[in-house]
Amino acid sequence: MGCGVSRQRDTGGPRRRPGSVGDVVVFLPGLRVPRSVDFSQALAGGLDRSVAERLSARRARVVDMAMQESAAALKPKRRTAARQGSSTANLLQALEDYLPALLGLVKEGSELRHRVQFVWANQEDNADETAMADAWYEVLSVLHLMAMVCLLQANSLLLPRSYGDGYAPRVSEESRRATVDVFLKASGYLDCAIRQVLPQIPSELRRQLPIDLAEGNLKALSLQALGQGVDMQLGLAIDSPKATLAVKRRLACEMVKYWHQVHENLPELLVPDGWGRKHLLFVKWKYVDAKAAAYYFHGLILDEGNTEKSHGMAVAALQASEEFLKESKRASEAFHATPPTSRSPTPFGTAKYILDKIPKDASSKVRINQDLYTQER
To answer: Are strands 5-7 and 20-23 parallel, antiparallel or unpaired?
Structure first.
């Protein structure tokens, strides 16, 4: 078939893992970066020269911008959230321009599919490259990078900004609403990769794909994007006087469901150190965070009942939410302390609400119910 895999293994030299990745609201593994290829030579005689040159130019733009984005991610202190948002938007546009041209190489019956050797490297370990002479591998890599860029955009949108109005830096409602669409877009790219692209790659080559492109990892990242999107929706619902407790509980339970599924997909895939370990800790943190929110809103709904039993169940749910919140704080500290280290911006949305409300409501409900039923007896 003319396709194969080549890898240059780590020879023991220093890895390019940064000491810190700066402020993190949305965590993602290291970016995969494409290496330059010569389309004109590889596709000579099979594709019009002007088309090959246009394809080369679009990919060269992607290579250049992806390298810049990767280098900037390794030096997070040198850029602002506004600059990151601009650069990721430009990279995403370059990828969106390149993808339709690339799909011409994988048309049914195309003889060009295996003519080009596509090479990609992981940001974490620049010496570890994966090369395949299969255009579907390139499509898969492009979709994965598009999703990662969306997650970078979301992280940028969710960092506090100063608006020059005399108030402290904050995450605006507009930014939180915008990230819901960005998270959905990221999940959509990954779902397309899983459903439409992976089945096109022969099983023997699929087994040799880098861990970033393994099906379980793609699923986990897609679900992570959905989970964080629901987190933003819950935060907006909390701020809305029209949203009922039932709506808030439903959103919190959706978060639990998504993070549970992420947790199930990741453990067997990721290495026990570096980015892999940090990613697992991020998932654990968000999973228990979601549980804290779900138990909290469930407890408030139970407390609306009129019986001693419902009030007792409400107290138990609120106490469980408090324990999950304590576990969440420990998980957050472990995540941020794990290399590459990171910082947690000022809490907002759901996180700020449960940090403020759970300890107060859990203790007050326990005291009120104890006083109420002690007096009755």
So the answer is: unpaired
Lookup: tokens for 138: 């390139």
Give the C-alpha separation, 140 to 3, whole Å: 15
Q: Give the dihedral of Cα atoms 147, 285, 348, 76; nearest 10 deg.
A: -60
Q: HEC string of the chain?
A: CCCCEEECCCCCCCCCCCCEEEECCCCCCCCEEECCCCHHHHCCCCCCHHHHHHHHHHHHHHHHHHHHHHHHHCCHHHCCHHHHHHHHHHHHHHHHHHHHHHHHHHCCCCCCCCCCCEEEEECCCCCCEEEECCHHHHHHHHHHHHHHHHHHHHHHHCCCECCCCCCCCECCHHHHHHHHHHHHHHHHHHHHHHHHHHHHCCHHHHCCCCHHHCHHHHHHHHHHHHHHHHHHHHHHHHHCCCCCHHHHHHHHHHHHHHHHHHHHHCCCCCCCCHHHHHHHHHHHHHHHHHHHHHHHHHHHHHHCCCCHHHHHHHHHHHHHHHHHHHHHHHHHHHHHHCCCEEECCCCCHHHHHHHHHHHHHHHHHHHHHHHHHHHHC
pTM: 0.90
Two structure tokens written together for 350: 């759901």
Give the model's confidence band at 371: pLDDT under 50 very low, under 70 low, under 90 confident, else very high: low
C-alpha–C-alpha distance, residues 309 and 7, integer Å: 62
Contact 125, 10 (CB under 8 A): yes
pLDDT at 71: 81
Give the span between the Cα atoms of 249 and 176, in whole angstroms. 19
pLDDT reading at 298 higher than 80: yes
User: pLDDT of 85-96, one tens digit each?
Assistant: 578 899 999 999
Q: What digits encode the pLDDT tens for the residues 241-250?
A: 999 999 999 9
What does the alpha-carbon distance between residue 332 and residue 326 come to, in Å, rounded to a whole number? Answer: 10
Distance, C-alpha 254 to centroid of its chain: 17
Where b means 16+ CB within 10 Å and e means fewer, 294-313 reads bbbbbbbbbbeeeeeeebeb
